[in-house]
């Protein structure tokens, strides 16, 4: 009951938080959806469509998270991989899966629409889960089982190319499914409500509540029940249950076809971004008007119906302003601008928003790299520690992530209801602290987490090597680093989500949400690079490398310290770019001298 109460509070905070960050997430569709509905005379699907949409999204996450949370253990036990190889597979797959939503969003918005994208992606997810389940079920699709002692010294038979091919095919199909479902499920759900009515606006807020409630439940179930089944009962059953649920979600989603509102694709935002750069390049030889002489020089038409707020002309990245300069042949006969030659001030300023955010976004990659270790080497540590609760029950190594989740679930309501009001009285800021300060605190916690991970790994290793006959130390010694990781996520990830959604124009929020996935993708690839460099550079002269399969013989603590140093440099980089950042919607600032920057406080 206590855990349930915690999660209910956490879910209510997610609703509060998301309603701020996604105040009008349907804004890109307000105009287009209205037109679509009026032309087809079809009312919004509303809550009648929600069981089908939420069911599909929930089961997709159940499948992918259920696999990801314990996949490192699966690769080491069933495919006889050493921890470096298993970490590489996990990081590369995670990177591909997190880049995929950006491609899925583009295909959906520009060509096929959200319904078709989700439908095809759901089938791909099912086929991927089925393939992975078959690798656990059919003996010929995995290498011969290997005793733990031989596995420790690397004497096991590696998987064949055919076996690896089947495994990677399954992972590839899962990535395709993730790329289609994740960027489309929230917008498709919002499409079912009319945001111009009070009932529709309330429905959108409730939709977010249910969305994050189901997401929280999925994490709880996968990190406890599913991981336990995989570890202690059967991998076939532990993978088969999510596979069957994924199949059921496809049937459920297709049953609601006639209920849904289907918004036609309106073209991708990426093309308009490219047009600004091309138009600015085409007009690179033009001179910008002098101060006070801009009137009538720039193309500034009325806002499109789906754009809710007008952005003022700024002088940061002023070379892009040339894309909005009107010349003799820039307009078509009907008054519309020629593509690739003329853009509006609004188009130019939207691209500037993206450019300003990129340095802040990049700082999240290294911070997320520290978090990514929860699913790789933290599991390796847990496997070497005493995981027993009582004489019979043993905690699955993949369930240790629950500690981070509980930290977030307990801390967020306290932060929202107690800390923010207290800070607000001091800082006079609506959120208590600025969004960039919140992200910076998260980056600092990533340093502390890696230092703690190194310290307690050294304690674990010393205990194992100095007292080889004694029982290993308790797995709960991993709690400090996992708790610090929870604080890192609470400040950094949620801070970035709110920051991106507030700093991007309303109709570019699909890109904003995709950036979070891209951060995880970048961190996965960076983690893989660091792991391989450390694996190949360290060791020698009779000594194993730091990340050898037997972590008691390696120096995993040194690896954590490397990540701590990287996080420290990243924190200094973040302080620099955050100081130079200019928030969206500030008053226009005229140039005073040569430098093309805006002068305002953070």
UniProtKB/TrEMBL annotation:
Its main location: membrane. GO terms for molecular function: transmembrane transporter activity. Keywords: Membrane, Transmembrane, Transmembrane helix. Pfam families: PTR2. SUPFAM superfamilies: MFS general substrate transporter (SSF103473). One of its GO terms (cellular component) is membrane. InterPro entries: MFS_trans_sf, POT_fam. It is found in: Membrane. It is a multi-pass membrane protein. CDD domains: MFS_NPF1_2. The keyword Lyase does not apply. Belongs to the major facilitator superfamily. Proton-dependent oligopeptide transporter (POT/PTR) (TC 2.A.17) family. This is Nitrate transporter 1.7-like protein. It comes from Gossypium arboreum.
């Amino acid at each position: 009951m206590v855990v349930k109460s915690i999660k209910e509070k956490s879910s209510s905070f997610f609703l509060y938080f998301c309603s701020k960050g996604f105040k009008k997430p349907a804004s890109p569709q307000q105009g287009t959806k209205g037109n679509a509905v009026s032309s087809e005379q079809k009312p919004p699907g509303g809550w009648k469509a929600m069981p089908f949409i939420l069911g599909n999204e929930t089961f997709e996450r159940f499948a992918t998270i259920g696999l990801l949370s314990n996949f490192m253990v699966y690769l080491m036990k069933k495919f006889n991989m050493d921890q470096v190889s298993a970490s590489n597979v996990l990081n590369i797959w995670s990177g591909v899966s997190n880049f995929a939503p950006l491609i899925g969003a583009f295909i959906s918005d520009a060509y096929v629409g959200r319904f078709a994208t989700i439908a095809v992606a759901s089938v791909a997810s099912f086929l991927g889960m089925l393939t992975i389940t078959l690798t656990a079920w059919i003996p010929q699709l995995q290498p011969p089982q290997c005793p733990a002692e031989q596995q420790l010294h690397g004497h096991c038979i590696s998987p064949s190319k055919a076996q690896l091919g089947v495994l990677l095919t399954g992972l590839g199909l899962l990535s395709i499914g993730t790329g289609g479902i994740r960027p489309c499920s929230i917008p498709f759900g919002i499409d079912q409500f009319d945001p111009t009515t009070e009932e529709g606006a309330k429905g959108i807020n409730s939709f977010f509540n249910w969305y994050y409630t189901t997401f929280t439940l999925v994490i709880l179930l996968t990190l406890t029940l599913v991981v336990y089944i995989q570890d202690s009962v059967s991998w076939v059953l532990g993978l088969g249950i999510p596979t069957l649920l994924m199949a059921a979600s496809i049937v459920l989603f297709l049953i609601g076809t006639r209920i849904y509102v289907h918004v036609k694709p309106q073209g991708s935002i990426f093309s308009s971004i490219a047009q600004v750069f091309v138009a600015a390049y085409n007009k690179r030889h033009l001179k910008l008007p002098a101060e006070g002489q801009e009137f009538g020089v720039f193309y500034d038409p009325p806002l499109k119906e789906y754009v809710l707020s007008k952005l003022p002309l700024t002088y940061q990245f002023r070379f892009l302003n040339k894309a909005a300069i009107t010349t003799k042949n820039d307009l078509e006969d009907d008054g519309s601008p020629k593509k690739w030659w003329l853009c509006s001030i609004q188009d130019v300023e939207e691209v500037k928003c993206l450019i300003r955010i990129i340095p802040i976004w990049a700082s999240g990659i290294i911070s997320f790299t520290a978090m990514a270790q929860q699913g790789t080497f933290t599991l390796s540590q847990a496997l070497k520690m005493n995981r027993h609760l009582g004489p019979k029950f043993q905690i699955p190594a993949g369930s240790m992530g629950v500690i981070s989740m509980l930290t977030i679930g307990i801390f967020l309501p306290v932060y929202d209801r107690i800390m923010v009001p207290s800070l607000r009285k001091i800082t006079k800021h609506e959120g208590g602290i600025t969004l960039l300060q919140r992200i910076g605190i998260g980056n600092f916690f990533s340093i502390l987490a890696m230092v703690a991970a190194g310290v307690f790994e050294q304690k674990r290793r010393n205990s194992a090597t100095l007292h080889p006959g004694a029982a290993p130390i308790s797995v709960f010694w991993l709690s400090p680093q996992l708790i610090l990781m929870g604080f890192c996520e609470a400040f950094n990830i949620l801070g970035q989500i709110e920051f991106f959604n507030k700093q991007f124009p309303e109709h570019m929020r699909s890109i904003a949400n995709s950036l979070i996935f891209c951060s995880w993708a970048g961190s996965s690839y960076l983690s893989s690079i660091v792991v391989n460099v450390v694996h190949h550079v360290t060791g020698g002269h009779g000594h194993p490398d730091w990340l050898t399969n037997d972590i008691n013989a390696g120096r995993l603590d040194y690896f954590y310290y490397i990540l701590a140093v990287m996080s420290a440099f990243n924190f200094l980089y973040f302080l620099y770019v955050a100081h130079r950042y200019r928030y969206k919607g500030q008053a226009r600032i005229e140039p005073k001298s040569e430098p093309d920057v805006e002068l305002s406080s953070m």
